[in-house]
Amino acid sequence: MASSLTKDSVTPGTPGSEKTFFGHPRGLATLFMTEMWERFSYYGMRALLPLYLVAPGGLGLSAGTATAIYSVYLSLVYLLTMPGGWFGDRVWGPRKTVAVAGGIIMLGHLTLALPSSGTFYAGLGLVAIGSGLLKANISTMVGQLYQGPDDPRRDGGFTVFYMGINLGAFAAPLIIGTIGENVNWHLGFALAALGMGLGVAQFLLGSRHLDAQSSVVPKPLSDREKATTLRKAALWAGIAVVAYAVVGFTGNYTLNWVLVPLTLLGVIVPVMVIARIKRDKDLDRAEQSKMSAYIWFFVAAAIFWMIYDQGGSTLSIFADSSAENSVFGWDFPVSWYQSVNPVLIMALAPVFAWVWLALNRRGKEPSTIVKFASGLMLVGVSFFLFLAPLSIAEGGHKAAALWLVAIYFTQTVGELLLSPVGLSVTTKMAPAKYASQMMGVWFLAVTAGDATTGLLSIAGVDLNKTGIVAMEATLAVVAGVAVWMYRNKVKSLMGDVR
């Protein structure tokens, strides 16, 4: 993607000052490209994952088990953003954490490329760990490029950053998905490793443009805290090893011994983390009020992602078995559906950024809470649309590909109303004590949503049934209406944040 670099008139010598990137600090280009390649590797693998899990030439699992594994994997990726943010705050600083994370992700994809079901799950674990370390910290570095939460370019900067995510996500299914489905699954996973390698190289070369604060450890661990942390980590790791050894040696081990604890963690941990921050007596009255408002955004986002992320599992598996995956008689790989959302994002994100800026100048920009409510209602509408192709398939016919495109289009508009604004409002409302960690809290909303999907799948709920889809759609629309009705209360809790 060609960068729009122009001369800037600010003081020379400041990182990112000589040029701008779409009118934003030059460091945004570095983070844009790093995230683009990381998302190329991540979304390429993710497009293949549910298809590989159900394919006779893959792991040959049932649709329910594949959905559970996919949902638990996504839940784990975002769950690990919390310790990832903690590492950025307390151990390495955001910049070093992102560099190390990229290496771990690349190793994970290389492990997935090995033709062995035993190493496959280890590869998923490595990608999840690396992604958790990277996500919270790279978003924090985007926020550090701007002059405080009141910088008028801030929301637009996150939208541009979001375009980098979607540029990588668009190309990945077309390249990695095609190779994986049509040539060799594991070669597709190897291409994901190559993408992450390019991302790491680009980050190391362009890191000089980042804000100096990105190399600072905001609150370094003391020697005593390091010893305590290591001791606790060793204790919990020991308990897990002993527990799973007992289960394995007694012959009772099944995949659910891993899936169920992880899905429960995905639901319980977000609640515990929010409660812990809310009870922190170090927060002043204004910070406490903002955290109360943030709970509304968190719950809205969790419901949104519960439905939205089924675009890669429930919808993908439906397309594999029940959709006419062709355009004008030309068949295309199922994984290509995963490119619909990012190409729409790239087309619509600049429009949304321009509209918000234009409305802001006139004093008419919708509040964050109104944007959230609208996004939530739209994701509900997308699943009401899903009822049509489900009914067609139940009648013994193949559903047209355009039905799925319409669903992804509706979800994309909802995403643009909720996701980039959510990233920005998180950095605005975060208490100073929880800088990078609050980005981890934002991603825990995704964890909670995906964990709920995982629990439903493990419980044997068929997510491709009209009754379940209708219930999820109704939940999202009702929740969106509720958020809108209480918008004035939430605005008052947000204080000076808009």
How would you explain this protein's 3D organization?
There is one protein chain. Strands 1-2-3 form a three-stranded antiparallel beta sheet, with helices on one face. A two-stranded parallel ribbon has the order 4-7. It has one domain: Growth Hormone, Chain: A. The chain is built from 17 helices and seven strands. With 498 residues, the chain is mostly helical. Helix 3 (81-90) packs antiparallel against helix 4 and helix 9 (256-279) packs antiparallel against helix 15. Helix content is 74%, strand content 3%. The protein has helices spanning 27-54, 63-79, 81-90, 94-112, 117-144, 154-182, 185-206, 223-249, 256-279, 285-308, 314-322, 340-361, 368-394, 401-429, 435-458, 466-485, 487-494, and strands at 5-7, 19-21, 24-25, 323-324, 326-327, 330-331, 399-400.
Q: In percent, how helical is the residue content?
A: over 70%
CATH class: Mainly Alpha
- Sequence stretches where pLDDT stays below 50 over 5 or more residues: 1-17
Succession of helices and strands:
EEEHHHHHHHHHHHEEEHHEHHHH
Mean pLDDT: 85
The 3D shape can be described as globular
- The end-to-end distance, rounded to whole angstroms, is 31 Å
At a glance:
With 498 residues, the protein is mainly alpha-helical. Helices cover 74% and strands 3% of the residues. α6 (154-182) packs across α14 (401-429), α9 (256-279) runs antiparallel to α15 (435-458) and α12 (340-361) packs across α14.
